[in-house]
């Protein structure tokens, strides 16, 4: 049997956050904040986050069902970090992600592009990542 070497499907989610890029960047990367926004639905939470934001640095966020039925660690290693502009990383399974932060006056456009995994439908993954990004937007806009 030959192993197929197909290029992963690239998926993009985005949000316009009503906050300056410096605040958006800080909220995206501070572990205390990550634990408050990094979940796709209200029955999940992120009880733990660590982040070494530099090229070669690693990050890990524990995502868990609030009822304790399931949890997993989401993590990877940074390959590019340009403060207030770009974050790129490779997930532990080898997939790549790029997040671009674009200042637009007092708002920031966040565009996240990731390689889809092959176990779940692409639409499901896009909805999940978009839900997390929407939570990020809501949380960031709610803090002073």
Shape, principal axes of CA atoms:
globular
| CATH architectural designation | 2-Layer Sandwich
Question: Order of SSEs, N→C?
Answer: EHHEEEEEEH
Report the mean per-residue pLDDT as an integer: 95
Please report which band the strand proportion falls in: under 5%, 5-15%, 15-25%, 25-35%, 35-45% or over 45%. Answer: 35-45%
Tell me the number of strands: 7
Structural class of the helix and strand makeup?
alpha+beta
The main β sheet shows up as:
7 strands, antiparallel
Radius of gyration: 15 Å
Measured as a percent range, the helix fraction is 25-40%
User: Regarding CATH, which class?
Assistant: Alpha Beta
Q: What is CATH's topology name? A: Alpha-D-Glucose-1,6-Bisphosphate, Chain A, domain 4
Largest beta sheet: what is the strand line-up?
1-7-6-5-4-3-2
What number of domains? 1
Topology record:
Elements: E1 10-17, H1 21-29, H2 31-37, E2 44-51, E3 58-65, E4 71-82, E5 86-91, E6 96-104, E7 107-115, H3 122-142
Antiparallel strand pairs: 1-7, 2-3, 3-4, 4-5, 5-6, 6-7
List keywords for this structure.
144 residues, alpha+beta, Alpha-D-Glucose-1,6-Bisphosphate, Chain A, domain 4, globular
Tell me what you see in this structure.
This protein has 144 residues and is an alpha+beta fold. The protein has a single domain, classed as Alpha-D-Glucose-1,6-Bisphosphate, Chain A, domain 4 (2-Layer Sandwich). It is built from 3 helices and 7 strands; from the N terminus they run E-H-H-E-E-E-E-E-E-H. The longest helix has 21 residues, at 122-142. It starts with 9 loop residues before the first strand and ends with a helix. The mean pLDDT is 95. It holds the Pfam family AHSA1. Belongs to the AHA1 family. InterPro entries: ASHA1/2-like_C, START-like_dom_sf. Residues 18-140 form the Activator of Hsp90 ATPase homologue 1/2-like C-terminal domain.
């Amino acid at each position: 049997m030959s192993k197929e070497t197909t290029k992963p499907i690239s998926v993009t989610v985005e949000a316009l956050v009503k906050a300056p890029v410096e605040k958006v960047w800080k909220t995206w990367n501070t572990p205390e904040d990550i634990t408050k926004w990094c979940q796709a639905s209200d029955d999940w939470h992120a009880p733990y986050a660590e982040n070494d934001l530099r090229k070669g640095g690693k990050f890990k966020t524990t995502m868990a069902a609030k009822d304790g039925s399931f949890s997993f660690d989401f993590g990877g290693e940074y390959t590019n970090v340009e403060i207030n502009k770009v974050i790129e990383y490779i997930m532990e399974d080898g997939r790549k992600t790029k997040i671009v932060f674009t200042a637009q006056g007092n708002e920031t456009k966040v565009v996240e592009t990731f390689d889809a995994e092959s176990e779940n439908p692409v639409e499901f993954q896009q909805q999940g990542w978009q839900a997390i990004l929407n939570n990020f937007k809501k949380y960031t806009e709610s803090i002073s």
